[in-house]
Amino acid sequence: MSVPATIRTERLLLRPYVHADAPRVLDIHSRMEVIRWLSNPPFVPMADLDAARAWIDRSRDKPHPARTLAIEVHDGGPRDGTVAGSVAVSRLERIEGGHVGEHEVGWHLHPDCTGHGYVTEAATALLDRVLGGGELGEVWCDMYADNAPSVAVARRLGLADRGVIDDDPWYGGPSRLFHVSAADWRGR
Fold first, then answer.
1. Distance CA 8, CA 30 (A)
2. CA-CA distances (angstroms) from residue 183 to 59, 134, 139, 157?
3. pLDDT given for residue 2 in this prediction
4. Which of 37, 100, 148, 161 has the greatest number of beta carbons closer than 10 A?
5. Which segments of the chain have a pLDDT < 70?
6. Strand partners, 71
7. Which DSSP string do the residues of 88-151 spell out, in sequence order?
């Protein structure tokens, strides 16, 4: 099992999930307004704490440099200590051809933690680690074409907007793609 290191930012601790996070993971992943952006249909809400613990185990068991980290808030406010959601770098598997060394950055938050800049701060820190630290040469950001909140985050991060494509090579169907190379990330 590859357990990613923690990353601290001004207001956040990015860390591996632990089983004690299962109630919050269940709360996040049982919400249609969250899971509708995370995968291909059908969208099935997480069923119970056992499913949440299994998700946590899968989030920790990824080949390096892929990682899923809990975004834990430490800003001194009412959300202090709360797991706001996740930020991740994941391997991309092409529909036709498997994994060819491509990775994507992604995120999701509980609705009670949106609008505070947590995702932008967390994704910046994770990209600093994987791109700035030389673990990866490039990262994609792939999302549903109508996911306006994630489009806004990708733009705040400074990722290059590749537009909407009709036939996503990793998920199929129309998608909005963003991209950044390690050199562009370091030079921003």
1. 28
2. 28, 9, 11, 15
3. 43
4. 37
5. 1-4
6. 14, 85
7. EEEE--BTTTB--S-EEEEEEE-GGGTTSSHHHHHHHHHHIIIIITTS-SEEEEEE-TT-HHHH
Fill in the DSSP letter of residue 40. Answer: S
Quote the pTM value: 0.94
C-alpha–C-alpha distance, residues 57 and 67, integer Å: 12
Token representation of residue 31: 């919400």
Q: How far apart are CA 85 and CA 114, in angstroms?
A: 10
Residue 114: HSE in the Cβ half-sphere, 13 Å Cα cutoff: 12
Three-state SS at 183? helix
User: Three-class SS of residue 24?
Assistant: helix
The per-residue pLDDT for 101 is: 86
Residue 2 and residue 67: Cα distance in Å, rounded?
Answer: 8
pLDDT value at residue 3: 44
